[in-house]
Amino acid sequence: xxxxxxxxxxxxxxxxxxxxxxxxxxxxxxxxxxxxxxxxxxxxxxxxxxxxxxxxxxxxxxxxxxxxxxxxxxxxxxxxxxxxxxxxxxxxxxxxxxxxxxxxxxxxxxxxxxxxxxxxxxxxxxxxxxxxxxxxxxxxxxxxxxxxxxxxxxxxxxxxxxxxxxxxxxxxxxxxxxxxxxxxxxxxxxxxxxxxxxxxxxxxxxxxxxxxxxxxxxxxxxxxxxxxxxxxxxxxxxxxxxxxxxxxxxxxxxxxxxxxxxxxxxxxxxxxxxxxxxxxxxxxxxxxxxxxxxxxxxxxxxxxxxxxxxxxxxxxxxxxxxxxxxxxxxxxxxxxxxxxxxxxxxxxxxxxxxxxxxxxxxxxxxxxxxxxxxxxxxxxxxxxxxxxxxxxxxxxxxxxxxxxxxxxxxxxxxxxxxxxxxxxxxxxxxxxxxxxxxxxxxxxxxxxxxxxxxxxxxxxxxxxxxxxxxxxxxxxxxxxxxxxxxxxxxxxxxxxxxxxxxxxxxxxxxxxxxxxxxxxxxxxxxxxxxxxxxxxxxxxxxxxxxxxxxxxxxxxxxxxxxxxxxxxxxxxxxxxxxxxxxxxxxxxxxxxxxxxxxxxxxxxxxxxxxxxxxxxxxxxxxxxxxxxxxxxxxxxxxxxxxxxxxxxxxxxxxxxxxxxxxxxxxxxxxxxxxxxxxxxxxxxxxxxxxxxxxxxxxxxxxxxxxxxxxxxxxxxxxxxxxxxxxxxxxxxxxxxxxxxxxxxxxxxxxxxxxxxxxxxxxxxxxxxxxxxxxxxxxxxxxxxxxxxxxxxxxxxxxxxxxxxxxxxxxxxxxxxxxxxxxxxxxxxxxxxxxxxxxx
Amino acid sequence: xxxxxxxxxxxxxxxxxxxxxxxxxxxxxxxxxxxxxxxxxxxxxxxxxxxxxxxxxxxxxxxxxxxxxxxxxxxxxxxxxxxxxxxxxxxxxxxxxxxxxxxxxxxxxxxxxxxxxxxxxxxxxxxxxxxxxxxxxxxxxxxxxxxxxxxxxxxxxxxxxxxxxxxxxxxxxxxxxxxxxxxxxxxxxxxxxxxxxxxxxxxxxxxxxxxxxxxxxxxxxxxxxxxxxxxxxxxxxxxxxxxxxxxxxxxxxxxxxxxxxxxxxxxxxxxxxxxxxxxxxxxxxxxxxxxxxxxxxxxxxxxxxxxxxxxxxxxxxxxxxxxxxxxxxxxxxxxxxxxxxxxxxxxxxxxxxxxxxxxxx
Lengths: 839, 361
Prior knowledge:
heterodimer; A: 839 residues; 6-stranded mixed β-sheet; 5-stranded antiparallel β-sheet; 22 helices; B: 361 residues; alpha+beta; 7-stranded mixed β-sheet; two-stranded antiparallel sheet; 14 helices; 9 strands; 18% strand
């Protein structure tokens, strides 16, 4: 909300700079987001009287205007078409005045005539939006020739842009804010004096606008007040009022609506003005809309109403959407003479429901849905009527209508005063607490003694329960803690001491998850992977392209289709990230992400199945491994090494990755991976995740330029946790006492035989004498023979694998003789088992 | 026979002695290596081998010792050994000298171009958001807060109702929510009526974890909950997904002064001891008194976190005795802190996953 610094100071009786006032408001909880000074440059603008007008000697479209500035007559060149007749008052900006555009006027010749300044429009002076012609003072405006602009307007001001929290509807009016300032500065709030109606109702018994108000929806409209005026002259408001509304961000319309808006900004109470002659049947009915009812509102929109919507109707039809916006059918226009001013209290929740359903937020709905002040209605209405009469004349007809469908008395809140110190950690004396609460409009109606405290010496002043009656403008004050907040808010948060709580060691053992997540992230980064953080919502199309769709969890109200479903996998995000990197000429990317993925809920669960996952994506050329000539293999082995290292770091020891069983072979462990170049990662019988080359169809769908070397792994954090928990803390092994002996063996094998199976067979054959078997070299016979120009006919389907076996006997030093013997036996066994038939 | 044997023995002795004397002349007193000028290790080893190698002259002579009359063997043996020892010593000395010389030469003239890149560099990195998150959890962990985790898709009830948000209240506008289609979160899609009152949403704040932890635990305790949250905002300063860290401490006699103490210390740890800190009143339905904390930065105040004493209505919602327990809670945007710390001007960089950005960390 915007507030006028000048207006606030007048109301609060405060004399301080705008910066000090802004700081104080912020420290009271009304955050001032911006300060804008206005009116500074044009203070020296003068009111001048037009004496005569004549054509410009050289320029057709210009005129020479002789004006009187209270002392002398001056000649001004003017191009506007609305120069008033002699005697009319306009505004002259002399040399040195800085206009709203930032331009400073200089003495200037126009077509050979020296102009003494410039006659200005509202917009040029920053007084309003009207740029169509000169700003001409009307009958309602004060100011005679020679008066400075600053003398006839509250010109120099600072507009405060405030962030008002939704619990403080009272601060959406200047009086509410001024009340806080007055209390904070130790001043007295000066409420405006309201002139008694100049035409008492009784003097016009024959008023033409008798209004009967009936409330049919008492719960939604507890109280409705209204006043009718006849013979109102609808006209533009005086410049001073237009200027104030303009600085507060409200477009001036005409005097009647401007007054209602001014009252809104002053009291925070929304009003609505009807053209009473357009209300049919002399009646206002506050009721729910009917199911098929429509209303064309002031913004020109024909609205279909819902039965939950509250309607202000006349005898026949809706005339306003209650508390939100008026209807076009009862709008005041230039010819309106009879006016009905509505000043009501609407139940906040209902206003909010309707405003949201209608997609509307107006100044009125903004206040009503936060809770207006049911106690201010008569006052605000009287003030509005008095101002309308002052500016637009008119006579009040009939009684002021005040229908109370439901009493909303001020309520009482109990405050145990010792809770103040217990909550805040500072002793604020009861006298200070009382001063603050009373300054905010509360009344302390009783202070009962509390039972003596345990230590037996209650402070007679402090140990009391206060019964506090809270003002009607503070719907947020409902319980003791609310009053404590009020006390400390005004006392000052900065005056609360800074203390540290006693140390309380955590009794519950820390959950293992955060630590594991941290080790995973750190481990991945240390292995050369860069962390991505992608949005959890993605486009359904991307999921389809990545082979992980359709999504199980959809958003009802996404910002866009691109962000409309929750990711079931980290793959789409990482692929997108990699693709972007390639577009930026990054050849090889190594990425990881740790985040939630979302799967369909279990049958009777309230929430989707949400899991922590780790995704690792490599994309780009990688170094050769074991003489591979296949970029995809390089990428997969690179990834496998990384993932094994990472799992080893997290679980404390290199994992053994189990081979897929016969049944699992050829069944892709994950649809987004190449069915023949991927594997499930199983450790200790628990499936950790999957690893492999990304499916070529996926890469084609995503336009990857290099589709041959993209590999992806995803691990379930829950599974890692489970393995870690089962394994417990790694136990140290005693060191071997005898040296080891290593032997290499090269076997010619079929491509179809997994190396790990051979390694396992080798190990088994050594009868426990072998400590480790490691694949150290691979020689692809087929491609080798092809390279030798033999058309690949010799080594088709064959590969030479070299394994290094480490022999050790824990009991004694191995002799070469013994190793040779065992090794020969091992070779024989394994060769027999994996023998390739001669071609 | 005996005479000729004697004669033979004395001949052999004479020949032996002649050779011995010759070897003594050339092999004692360092003579063996004397003629070499700045020898290499290889040259030294060659000379040594000439004397002591398997076919070396000393070795060969040594092998002839048994041919000598027994009464002379000992004395001749000692003399041969003296040569051997002398050559070994000289060899060792010369070798040492040669190595010293090599080291000296290497120190004086040796060079590798150490400006070459190191081998097999693996450059990885943590996202700046993770860096901030780790820093915050480490600091708060050292204060005694435990880390808690919760789902990102959560019940409306946990996100709003149990935190004391009044129904149909504009307070929920501050946190415009993404709702989740009903059938996706258990149960079945029943039609438009379900859509009108969605029960599940993407959590708009990590305060949902407050609720979950309070329901799960018995006080006293202190927890923090870092994680992703979602609001329907997308502009230069707002991302529809962002990260928060929530803190909650429940105990019997905590107060606002202690809240100020913990948060002041936290902010000093993050931004340095000199950072200006300002507490001012604000409103969150689940705390009271509620506040926001600003830090001074370049002469301006920047909002950095929200906080307050746990509202009794929250305790009532989770079944704690609001007269016995008090608590304080705070929540901060990890994004904001990250941007301040690392000088990131545009929030979209944080979620754009541009390699050129990621590679900076």
